[in-house]
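Good morning,

Both structures are done.
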Amino acid sequence: MSRVSFEQLLEAGSHFGHLKRKWNPLMAPYIFMERNGIHIIDLYKTAAKIDEAAAALKQIAKSGRKILFVSTKKQAKQVVADKAVSVGMPYVTERWPGGMLTNFTTVRKAVKKMTTIDKMSKDGTFDQLSKREKLQITRQRAKLEKNLGSIIDLTRLPSALFVVDVMKEHIAVAEANRLSIPVFAIVDTNSDPSSVDFVIPANDDATKSIEIILGALCDAINEGLEECKIERIDSPAGGTAERVLVRRERRIKIEKKILAKDDEKL
């Protein structure tokens, strides 16, 4: 049984595409018909694609990896933020910082700067500064919080990217493609689906449409997270044995490299 029914998608207005003159021919397989100059999306295909994406996202969440949600458009910002928080995943809804994925180490430095400022306020260092310095640091902290506060727990590159409106978030999609990070996206009739690994053809301008699709996907992510918890409980010492083996294998590889270099020197 599908996670989202045809009737639910129809009621949410997920079938409304863009004007015919604005369409992208690559979206032809997902278009059902044209009415009054507007393309109508095939909701049966939308429902099938939602199930496909949900299954993949569930497996990613089950493995304990992170999914980054991205949408800076007005209609989707709040919905994306709420849904991402509900499943404990990082999100970007203010502005996509260029190079966030391809130059991830620099972004992490900016995030660490926030934690440094927080430590200063706790250990009393902040109180020793002048009023001007305090004001500058407070403003800097507020700016960092606005742009990067939602990814503070993202300590490594995400395993997947979920995007609403691939045209608006084309930089994020391009960075993910460059790093071979799978992209999940709600794609409208005016967009290019070739850069997306898991295409969900639907109206990306209607808040209800975005909400119902995200709801189904987040339910799948929650299921994956619950299964991940169960597996950790069932496994010996919460998976400690597996981690020890992995570390041991890494150490052996490093030792082999060191020995090989020593042999070359001799």
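Second structure follows.
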Amino acid sequence: MADPVERNSGRGTLRAMIRPRPPRLGIAGSAVLDVTPGGLVREADRARLRVGIAGLWCLLVAGGALALAAPQSPLLAPRSQAALTPPLAGPFAGSELALGAGGSALLIAAMLAGYLAVVRGARVLPAGPALAAVVVLHVAFALAPPLFSSDVFSYIAYGRMGALHAISPYLHGPDAIAGDPSYPFTGLTWVGTSSVYGPLFTLLSYALAPLGLAAAMWTFKLLSAAASLACVALVWSCARRRGVAPLPAALLVGLNPLLLVWAVGGGHNDLLMIALMLAGVRLALARRGGAGAAAIVSASAMKLSAGILLPFLALGMRGEQRRRTLAGAALTAAALALATLVAFGTAPFGLGSTIGANAGDWHSIPGLISRQLLGTGAPSSVQRLCLSLLTLAICLELARRVWRNRTDWIAAAGWATFWTLLLSPVLAPWYVVWLTPLAALGDRRLRRVALAFTVLVVATRLCDFLPGNVDSLGLRPPTG
């Protein structure tokens, strides 16, 4: 016979008190606290909620302080030939907050700790405050001056070369316009290097050239922040389509310190590339493989790195969708190739050799191993070739697994991206944001690997702030 308590209007109350039910899922896909008289929240979820909220506050306070102090903190500034003038320093230039090596390292470490706490508690965080924190931090780093990297000034210089000086950025470096206002702010390492960016992005930089140096720089910064928020929204939408909790996926991407500090803070074009790439993923998930392939090919015309996703997309489609995917990729590639020929001639088709000639980064994992463990200095050309062949072999095996329907194509593309970054002789910190959206949509192991990789890359960057501003791990580039 049924329990009399359950036959009354308070049916299930006694049973709920004895065996608390799991938290309800809200419309955001995260767990919400059940405050009805008959519902109790598990203590583990309460603990995760406290950890997640603490993480949000840590990110907001540390990130806000870092952005506010950036104009007065030389260690956060890009390593260029000239200091940032007031129009380039941004609205925080009047702040009296300044950071040295210790303070900068402490705030970045606090952001990393807050991020890990948010990821831990993401499933029980309320969506509204969590997403508000994403937006606030994006605005803060969009309004900060360029952080660490002078790449945004390279974008401007390449655009001004073609649009204002009639000099091809694919044949000459910024030193060809040494009298231009953008030249003093371009990094010394790259002043003699021709553009390594795709023709679609170069056309965008041409369009912004007439704005002037300061307006072009702030436009690039705002575009990168908007593209980053678009990435968060697209990850949310893709996660819902795949049956993945969208809030944890969005927070894994949108609150990553490497994205906020280096990618948004630096105004990097990688975010424009990733937004297009994720638009392609979203279209493919809606069974619009042709349009998805077109978006990914367009992303590759921003930066070649997005092309790694295309073969996995094609192999992941079936039947008519695969044919449409291949057709969409071919037609878009042909149209972009024609536009490239008209705008720039044949020079952009040598991008691969230009990128290869500049391969070699003191912050890469192979570089760290060869310098510290092997004591052989930077990876040699033979070592780089072996690493490239190993990366290719791994990617081919992942492609074979997708072809045989043994691995999901998004997860496989994420693993291919991880191994490419891990084994590459070039690893800028913002490159990790190529991985996190795919990890958010992939499998649990890939998400854990992406988190561990984030910790590793942030740790190597914190070495730049060791006493005396000398990188004891040998990761700092030579000066002069």
